[in-house]
Amino acid sequence: MIHSNKFGEIKILEDKEYFQDKVISLAMSGGADSTLLCYLIAKAIHDGNMNTAIWPMNGYDISLPHDSLKLIKVIEFINNRFPEVDLKYPISVVFDGQGEDVKNDYLRPLRDTLCKQGAYDIWMVGINQGPTLEIQKKEFPTIKRLAGHTLSEQLLAPELNAPFVNQDKRFIVQCYKDLGLLDLYHTTSSCTQSDPGCNECWFCHERAWAEKEVLR
Ligand SMILES: [Zn+2]
Predict the structure, then answer these.
(1) Across 164-168, average pLDDT
(2) SS3 for 193?
(3) How many secondary structure helices (H) and strands (E) does the chain include?
(4) Residue 150 alpha carbon to ligand 1 centre in Å
(5) In angstroms, what is the span from residue 22 Cα to ligand 1's centroid?
(6) Range with the poorest average pLDDT among 2-6, 20-24, 158-162, 173-177
(7) CA dihedral sign, ordered 29, 179, 2, 210
(8) Residue 206 Cα to ligand 1 middle (Å)
(9) Which CATH number goes with the domain that contains 100?
(10) To the nearest whole number, what is the mean pLDDT of the chain?
């Protein structure tokens, strides 16, 4: 299934035969990117009448209790929209990051262990490449991505199956708008602080920039 707008184009489950009878595990945070990816995969399964399951995996940092809290709501939304799609209850690895960005240190062993057990077939992530350096300098010159959030490391992972990898947040927000999913979009949260976000971190700035470009 192809989704395109003025910011870019992606393909979701294009090779139906490859994805048939598979379990796709999806890293989900309750954020806008992974939520949209889950929705689009569920839609492709529904529209293509496919026998493919989705199993969300989540890293829950008890030092950031707001983070991931939206996950249950977005899963409910997608379940209600596509009730016949096998969207499994998320599995979470719970840890205390104590202010450090160590989510992947916990999520990766969970992913690798479940992979060895044959619990899923395909691992997907909703990561996008982010705004260009040019846009970053112009729109939010003093805000730097947090250490560990530089995308290069994740983007170079050989096993990465990431449909949004060549897109930025504007593409994501435009998809929500075009699909009539702004209520779902506003259910998601990009900041680790409670609603409406801290307005200071990288994620808040990126989100505000994309909303300015698409929604205003
Ligand atoms: Zn924030």
Answers:
(1) 91
(2) coil
(3) 9, 7
(4) 17
(5) 36
(6) 158-162
(7) negative
(8) 9
(9) 3.40.50
(10) 89
From ligand 1's centre to the CA of 204, what distance in Å?
4
Categorize the per-residue pLDDT at 174 as very low, low, confident or very high, splitting at 50, 70 and 90.
very high
Residues around the ion ligand 1 (C-beta < 5 A): 191, 197-198, 201, 204
Q: State the pLDDT at residue 149.
A: 45
If you measure from the C-alpha of residue 15 to the centroid of ligand 1, how many angstroms do you get, rounded to a whole number? 37
Distance CA 207, CA 24 (A): 27
C-alpha 67 to ligand 1 mean position (Å)? 11
SS3 string, 105-150, reads HHHHHHHHHHHHCCCCCEEECCCCCCCCHHHHHHHCCCCCCCCCCC
pLDDT in the model for residue 148: 42
Q: Which domain holds residue 140?
A: 2-215
pLDDT of residue 158: 52
Question: Residue 20: which residues within 8 A CB-CB, separation 6 or more?
Answer: 50, 51, 52
Cα 207 to middle of ligand 1, angstroms: 9
- Residue written as token pair 């490859």: 18
| Residue 65 alpha carbon to ligand 1 centre in Å | 14
Q: Calculate how far, in angstroms, residue 50's C-alpha sits from the geometric centre of ligand 1.
A: 38
pTM of the model: 0.92
* Domain count within the chain: 1
Confidence at residue 211, expressed as pLDDT on a 0 to 100 scale? 96
- Cα-to-centroid distance, 192 and ligand 1 (Å): 6
